[in-house]
Specification:
The protein is of the alpha+beta class. 20% of the residues lie in helices and 28% in strands. The strands form two sheets. The protein has an eight-stranded mixed sheet with strand order 1-2-3-7-11-10-9-8.
Length: 231
């Protein structure tokens, strides 16, 4: 199910249902923002991952669907009501377009930072190159890509060393468009994510500090993002 309206130069859409079908779709090459929610627990694998990265017995036991997405990165676990997924599309030639694939995601991260600040969450965009670790090919939140948002201390407190990733961003590009798939967690379940990785798998302890949740409701995060839509 999809509903839409407009905000300035953007078409804003609400979508709900199967994450695999949504990932597989090809959007129109025009400015759009889609907030997608899932109807059941789903693990979305990155475009370079294979089915062998997943412990399918655990997924079946937990009732988690496993789907493939067309953008890069490691797997992302989505539980209904516990994340905000914002899918952003711009056409080739848009004033936000950047031929540098990595740098192209920085403005999206800056949008998130501005929105999260209104909710009392201080974040900073990772503007440097991709950082990988032992598990980042299997689990999205353990690596840090250009444009992604790292969380620091709450607004009003002195800035310090960033703690955890608060917003993940992946990208799919064609000659006609760039599609940025972005997400924050409202709850983080390192034990579930670890269990879904095929052996040898990371431990929940190893994954616990990788993500920083946003202490807000789905509606509050959506409202903040829509209030800071860039020109």
């Amino acid at each position: 199910m999809t509903e839409s309206w407009t905000s300035g130069d953007w078409t804003i859409l609400d979508s709900h249902g199967d994450a695999g079908a949504f990932h597989a779709g090809t959007p129109e090459p025009a400015r759009s923002v889609t907030f997608h929610t899932v109807d059941r627990p789903t693990l979305a694998l990155g475009s370079a991952q294979t089915s062998s990265d997943v412990d399918h017995r655990v997924a079946a036991a937990l009732g988690v669907d496993v789907v493939q997405r067309r953008s890069g990165g490691g797997a992302v676990l989505m539980l209904p009501g516990e994340f905000v997924w914002m899918d952003v599309v711009i056409p080739a030639g848009d004033r936000r377009w950047n031929d540098d694939v990595a740098a192209a995601m920085i403005w999206v991260g800056e949008w998130w930072v501005e929105a999260l600040a209104t909710l009392g969450v201080r974040g900073q965009v990772h503007a440097d190159r991709l950082i990988r670790d032992e598990w980042s090919a299997q689990v999205c939140w353990t690596g840090v890509g250009t444009g992604e948002v790292l969380a620091g201390k709450p607004v009003g407190e002195p800035a310090g060393k960033p703690v955890g990733k608060v917003v993940g961003i992946s990208q799919r590009r064609t000659r006609e468009l760039a599609r940025f798939q972005t997400m924050c967690h409202l709850r983080w379940h390192p034990e579930l994510v670890a269990a879904l990785v095929a052996p040898s798998r990371p431990t929940a302890v190893e994954l616990a500090a990788c993500a920083q949740v946003v202490p807000a409701t789905v509606d509050a995060v959506r409202t903040a993002l829509l209030a800071t839509v860039p020109a």
